[in-house]
Specification:
The protein has 195 residues and is an alpha+beta fold. The protein has 2 helices and 8 strands.
């Protein structure tokens, strides 16, 4: 008798505890508000629009069909929030332990690999906008591209070289060169040197 009465008494509590956290499927999103709104399919025939609680400094708008975890704040099923949304269809797989990645369904990714290597892969373009950009590399920078374009001046504190020589080598050749004279001998070196 005591067992049945206890079960009867605790049943509403157990039911409420089971409904505190729910899995859901994202059916629609609205990122125009202060907190993003996700429409979620939760339990059978239960569809709700809930706020998506995201970490400070990071936001992502999930695709339809992504999965989410919803929590009933204060145990009230009428006040659900989405704690996180993920999408197993596009999650980057094969990371080593400790590696971190940001990724999209289109294949763009920023991966922090072991060995302190950071890889950025973009399908069509990478744009950096800032008044000043500084890249510090202690050994070298390699640009593996057929062309490099600049819309303004290019200045170097050191020498500039190509496949056949350096600009300093061209200066030295020009500044020291002479020509055969009209009546034999050679002309003097240029009176205006290239600096």
């Amino acid at each position: 008798m005591v067992g049945r009465e206890t079960t009867k008494l605790l049943s509403p509590l157990w039911r409420r505890l089971r409904l505190l956290i729910s899995r859901a499927v994202v059916t629609r999103t609205d990122s125009a508000k202060g907190l993003q709104i996700l429409q979620l399919d939760l339990l059978r025939d239960e569809t709700r629009e809930v706020e998506h609680i995201e970490p400070y400094g990071f936001t992502a708008r999930p695709l339809q069909g992504a999965e989410a975890i919803a929590a009933a704040v204060g145990g009230a099923r009428g006040h659900l929030v989405a704690l996180l949304a993920t999408d197993r269809r596009y999650r980057k797989k094969g990371l080593a332990e400790g590696e971190v990645a940001l990724y999209t369904d289109e294949g763009d990714e920023l991966v922090f690999n072991r060995g302190r290597i950071v890889r950025l892969n973009a399908g069509s373009a990478v744009e950096v906008t800032a008044p000043k950009v500084t890249i510090t590399a202690s050994t070298s920078i390699t640009l593996a591209t057929p062309d490099v374009f600049a819309t303004g001046n290019i200045k170097a504190q050191g020498d500039i070289s190509d496949g056949t020589g350096s600009m300093q080598g061209m200066r030295d050749t020009y500044n020291g060169h002479n020509h055969p004279g009209d009546s034999g001998g050679t002309t003097n070196k240029p009176n205006q040197e290239m600096s």
